[in-house]
Amino acid sequence: MNPKPFRVGLVAWHALPAIVPPAAAHRNVAETSDGRIATQSAPTRFGETFGGLETAMWTLARHLAHQADIEPICFLETDRPRNDSIPWPSEVQGVKLDISVNRFRAIRHAVGDCIDTESKRIQRFSPHLLWQLPLLAVTRPFRSRDPIDSQPDPRLVGKSIDVWISFGVSSSSSRVVATATLEQTPSFVCVRSNAGLEDGLATDTEYRNECGESSSARRFALLQSDHVVCQSQWQVDRLKQLFDRDGLLSRNPIHREDWQPPFPMPAPEPFTQPFDVLWIGRYDDFHKRPLLMLEAAKKLPNLSFKMIANPFDPDIESRVRQEAPENVELIDRVPFAQMPAVFAAAKLFVSTGSREHEGFPNVLLQAAASHTPIVSLSDHDDFLVRSGAGVACDESMETFTQSIEEPFRRDATDWSRVDEYLDRFHDAGGRAAEFANWIRRSISSPTDCSH
């Protein structure tokens, strides 16, 4: 009789749209005030967008499901009990889904964007506050209390999990680690951003980062977890330097064949014809930095740019929409299943991600697997130098702009070399097998995952 498989809990609360696309997603095409055509998803609701953290979690989960002795369970949250009219699935591709429904999550998020909860002061007025605040006040006695940072998460306790894996150095991870400590099970925290290893976390200073996460909770996640998993050698070295902790190195996973034709789904309407430059990110001024993309696009009026940008900072979004030149088209969201065809339509992929805040952008892997040349302001984990997939510009906007022009004169990328590099260091099956070995060792010998 085979022993029961190890139940592995993977926690990335916002990852549901990376696993189950929103059922009601569709696109609107509208003419802007200056006569240009703007394409956007409608409606794009809170919780329907996701990024590299969620993609990496789901990639790892579904490849862990191929391990005979491991049963992955993803812990997720949504603000609605059904996917439009369809019930949420309990299992996808061999991975069980444990979905918590928090009907007020979207409203609370919107209010939190407008009000500083610590000072109780309005930072940005929205007319929606006139009904959102009374609704939250009336329903407060009937709503579950928020999980407390660095304390066991009630949504996770008692789930009979053998190993916990949390993604991101965050307050959520602090609660996962506290849950694991309570239940005496091993915990892994996966660093997803270089900002998760910032200087302030090595001190006792109390502060909040750009996303509102407290330093004490993030510090707890790093120091109290049994194992810290890093995306790059830089993060391994940084973890050792700041906290004298040995990290486990697991570079971001990708299933390369998913990004080569034939594709299961065609590209959506804005991408059905080849175009010059693709950019993917969110509206912010510190991490993805779309305004830098506009700066380069204005100097290259003969090239066509398509920017897929997720909501984040309404002020930055407003600036980007106002300042975008005629050769830039803004797209709000593209279903993940259609992204391989989107990359295939682009002649070039560009990244303006900040070295300070990025960990390792999954979009670089996706572009490389799609055989789409890359130009990046920074070379994260020396990926471009090591793989040969593109050009890094060492944060020089002048070099960046010049390099965007260069691929349209010549493409000397050795794609067989790129494929070999991806297979060696980023293959999803290999990374999952490596992680499975760490899981087994953490259970048999909780203090040792290093060999």
UniProtKB/TrEMBL annotation:
Keywords: Glycosyltransferase, Transferase. This is Poly(Glycerol-phosphate) alpha-glucosyltransferase. Transmembrane segments: none annotated. GO terms for molecular function: poly(glycerol-phosphate) alpha-glucosyltransferase activity. Coiled coil: none annotated. PANTHER family: GLL4300 PROTEIN (PTHR12526:SF626), GLYCOSYLTRANSFERASE (PTHR12526). It is an enzyme of class 2 (transferase). The keyword Transferase applies. Its EC number is 2.4.1.52.
